[in-house]
Amino acid sequence: MANIQKPNSDITDIVGFLQNGGKLKPFLKDIFLIKTYVAGLDYIDYIDDIFPIIKVRDKLDLLREASNEYDKHAILVKYNGQKIGYVPRKDNYVLSKLMDGGKELYGVVVSFGVDEVYEGYEIKFINFKIFLKES
Question: CA–CA separation, 89 vs 29, rounded Å?
Fold first, then answer.
């Protein structure tokens, strides 16, 4: 029995912390889920007013729009309280389920601009990352 040694590891430190009433928080920062783009920018009449003020790292609000007649998993994207489009249909199924389950999601702008000009028409884009807010 004299050869038995107490393990010296992070696990023993954590067990001791918990035994003394400590509580662990699973994540210390919000969780990155996916990088995507804002769909439907072309349908927003005031998008030309928003583009000059948008910046990289700006927050985008994501709101569930379950009553959307075109997509029952729709997630609305807002910038400074104004609708700018939607999370693309190809990306919204799992995200909508998280939101329906009470999880809070938000976006952060990573890039934006004009992708190309086609017959005098500018094609604008906003790329963003979606995060799960850890509360």
Answer: 27
Q: Domains in the chain and their CATH numbers?
A: 28-132 (3.30.70.2330)
Residue 38 and residue 128 in contact, taking contact as beta carbons nearer than 8 Å: yes
Whole-number Cα distances in Å, 107 to 3, 41, 111, 125: 56, 16, 12, 15
What is the DSSP annotation of the chain?
-TT-----SHHHHHHHHHHTT----S-SSPEEEEEEE-BTGGG-TTHHHHTTT--TT-EEEEEE-TT-SS-TT-EEEEETTEEEEE--HHHHHHHHHHHHTT--EEEEEEEEEEEEEETTEEEEEEEEEEEEPP-
Look at residue 35 in the predicted model and tell me its pLDDT: 98
What are 42-84's pLDDT values in tens digits? 899 999 999 999 999 999 999 999 999 999 999 999 999 999 9
Q: How many CB atoms lie within 10 A of CB 47?
A: 20
Answer yes or no: are the C-beta atoms of 87 and 95 closer than 8 Å. Answer: yes
pTM for this model (two decimals): 0.77
